[in-house]
Design a protein that fits this description.
This protein has about 110 residues and is mainly β. About 0% of the residues lie in helices and about 50% in strands. The protein contains no helices and 11 strands. Strands 2, 4, 5, 6, 9, 10 and 11 form a 7-stranded mixed beta sheet that branches.
Length: about 110
């Protein structure tokens, strides 16, 4: 069984930073890609960033240059470093692993005040 647990969310003022963590129950070197998504109230879930086993990163235009995704295979974790946060970044952030048809975590809330 594969599970993911996100942590690191919280309340921050605009311009601030947060680092989210996604912990996996299995070795993440077995997972081709791991991604972060987010969902704001009333909106559909949207893709934020992806990292491959080889370390290739890809970002949504809305976060490019501000967010950074990384992985620590030994710790079985994927991180999302978020900087220059704006109120538009307020959302529940989810981790997704591309394995067994897709596995989601429970999400972590990020709230950015103006």
């Amino acid at each position: 069984q594969v599970w993911l647990v996100e942590s690191g969310g919280g309340y921050v003022q605009a311009g601030g930073s947060l680092r989210l963590s996604c912990a996996a129950s299995i070795s993440i070197s077995r997972i081709n890609t791991i991604s972060w998504y987010r969902q704001a109230p009333g909106n559909q879930r949207e893709w934020v960033a992806t990292i491959s086993t080889g370390g290739t990163q890809d970002y949504a235009d809305a976060v490019k240059g501000r967010f950074s995704i990384s992985r620590d295979n030994a710790a079985k974790r994927v991180y999302l470093e978020m900087t220059s946060l704006t109120p538009e970044d307020t959302a529940v952030y989810y981790c997704n692993a591309k394995i067994y048809g897709g596995v989601w975590g429970q999400g972590t809330q990020v709230t950015v005040s103006s």
